[in-house]
Amino acid sequence: MLRKAMKFIRDESAGYLANHMARLFARELQARIKPLGLSTGTFPALLILWEHDGLTQRELIEHLDVEQPTMANTLARMERDGLIVRRRDSVDGRAQRVWLTDAARVLRDAATTAAEEVNDRALAVLSPSERATFLDAMRRIIVAMQAGPSDDADQ
């Protein structure tokens, strides 16, 4: 089936708006966590490790939905910056587990407070019910996007 060519309107594009909003969130978060010696590139991995220390690289990839080379580079930076150490798994010698250092553990409260402040500032324009609806919609969209392309993507 041929589709009629439509004019792309960026301010009506969910993808464009989500990307723009993500960049604004990242810029403000970066300004707040840079004094802690952190970056927005390592922050997602830290969030997961603060909840589940000792994951493998593969488990981190699954949690963060990133490519293996991206995760490898992120972990190399985190190791260089003294945030993590990697140790061989005691059961599977081929796997390495990623462990937070004491230096990374003490940053948790300050870093997550900074993220909460960015979220609160950004979402202050929404009522509590709008905020809940917005977050629910984003979670559902993420799940749908993680499921992969729909059948009509080939057309």
List the strand order in the largest sheet.
1-3-2
Portion in helices: 55-70%
CATH superfamily of the domain at 11-114: Winged helix-like DNA-binding domain superfamily/Winged helix DNA-binding domain
CATH level-1 class of the domain at 11-114: Mainly Alpha
Kindly state the mean pLDDT as a whole number? 92
Q: Main sheet?
A: 3 strands, antiparallel
CATH architecture label of the domain at 11-114? Orthogonal Bundle
Number of DSSP E strands: 3
How would you characterize this protein structure?
- The protein is mainly alpha-helical and 155 residues long.
- The protein has a domain at 11-114: Arc Repressor Mutant, subunit A (Orthogonal Bundle), CATH 1.10.10.
- It has 7 helices and 3 strands.
- Strands 1-3-2 form a 3-stranded antiparallel beta sheet.
- Helix 3 crosses helix 4.
- The chain is globular and about 55 Å long.
- The termini are close together.
- 12% of the residues are buried.
- The mean pLDDT is 92.
- This is Transcriptional regulator.
- Residues 1-143 form the HTH marR-type domain.
- It comes from Thioflavicoccus mobilis 8321.
Which terms would index this structure?
globular; 57% helix; 3-stranded antiparallel sheet; mainly alpha; 3 strands; Arc Repressor Mutant, subunit A
Compile the SSE list and pairings.
Blueprint: H1 14-33, H2 43-51, E1 55-56, H3 57-64, H4 68-80, E2 84-88, E3 96-100, H5 102-105, H6 108-123, H7 128-146
Helix pairs in contact: 1-6, 3-4
Pfam family, one: MarR
Protein name: Transcriptional regulator
Keywords: DNA-binding, Transcription, Transcription regulation
